[in-house]
Write a structure and sequence with these properties.
The strands form 2 sheets. A 5-stranded parallel beta sheet has the order 2-3-1-4-7. By secondary structure, it is an alpha/beta fold. Helix 2 crosses helix 3, helix 4 runs parallel beside helix 5 and helix 6 packs across helix 7. It has one domain: 3-Layer(aba) Sandwich (Rossmann fold), CATH 3.40.50.300. Helices cover 47% and strands 14% of the residues. Bound molecules: BIS(adenosine)-5'-pentaphosphate. BIS(adenosine)-5'-pentaphosphate (AP5) binds next to helix 1, helix 2, helix 3, strand 6 and helix 9.
Length: 214
């Protein structure tokens, strides 16, 4: 099963993709996670990406397309994958179609998660992330057992540099102008499902599994 998770920042794509990845044993591929790891390790890719990410802008298409092209060649993607945060522009979506066409495959379903701006801002502002194991907490909705400590690996939790109020606003604007056109792109192909992102993670997960079936 080849899936794309689409939706604005903070809607819960990563949370749902992680759950589904564990349950269905297919990899979750998050361009955001790959880029953050590169920034942390100060690789060339990380140095290129950092200023775009810190200011809430998208990293250039050719950079993220290259990342996905290489990642999809890995053997764990043969049985399927969940793309979380890619594609985010029409050129990225076209490049993905071309990549999969070459293997005579395609995307089975695109889930578009929806939530009010007010709730998105609440989820993003309260998020605390573990740079060590990538676990995600929320100070209100999924608080760690010990303040500022990751439940999974006991690493120190941080607030992502792009989860500060001024950057959140920019990311929501970028989503509206650059990513929203993908909804029509995939609707026209008849593979788009709309997912109400409100409610607790369990309720959202039930909608996800209803949309993709067994
Ligand atoms: P990326 O990391 O992809 O960020 P994003 O798309 O903005 O999404 P988020 O990770 O912020 O949110 P999410 O929807 O995964 O929500 P989550 O599950 O964490 O990208 C970061 C940057 O990298 C971009 O700005 C760009 O610069 C660059 N980039 C990445 N991909 C790119 C691409 N393809 N092209 C160009 N540039 C790219 O949940 C949020 C919070 O809410 C958490 O605290 C969670 O615990 C909580 N939560 C989740 N679900 C629920 C629920 N149901 N109820 C209550 N709380 C919930």
């Amino acid at each position: 099963m080849r899936l794309v998770f689409l939706g604005p920042p903070g809607v819960g794509k990563g949370t749902q993709a992680q759950r589904l990845s564990t349950q269905r044993r297919i990899p979750k591929i998050s361009t955001g996670d790959i880029l953050r790891e590169a920034v942390q390790k100060k690789t060339l890719l990380g140095l290129q990406a950092k200023s775009f990410m810190d200011s809430g802008k998208l990293v250039p298409d050719e950079v993220v397309i290259g990342i996905i092209r290489e990642r999809l060649k890995e053997s764990d993607c043969m049985e399927g994958f969940i793309l979380d945060g890619f594609p985010r522009t029409v050129p990225q979506a076209r490049a993905l179609t071309a990549m999969l066409d070459r293997n005579r495959s395609g995307i089975d379903r695109v889930l578009n998660f929806e939530l009010s701006d007010e709730e998105l801002i609440r989820r993003l502002s309260g998020r605390r992330s573990c740079p060590n194991c990538q676990a995600v907490h929320h100070i209100e909705f999924n608080p760690p057992r010990k303040p500022d400590q990751c439940d999974a690996c006991r690493g120190a939790l941080i607030q992502r540099s792009d989860d500060r109020p001024e950057t959140i606003r920019k990311r929501l604007d970028v989503y509206q102008t650059q990513t929203l056109p993908l909804i029509d792109f995939y609707k026209d192909q008849g593979i788009l499902s709309r997912i109400d992102g409100s409610g607790n993670p369990e309720a959202v997960y039930r909608r996800v599994t209803d949309a993709i079936g067994k």
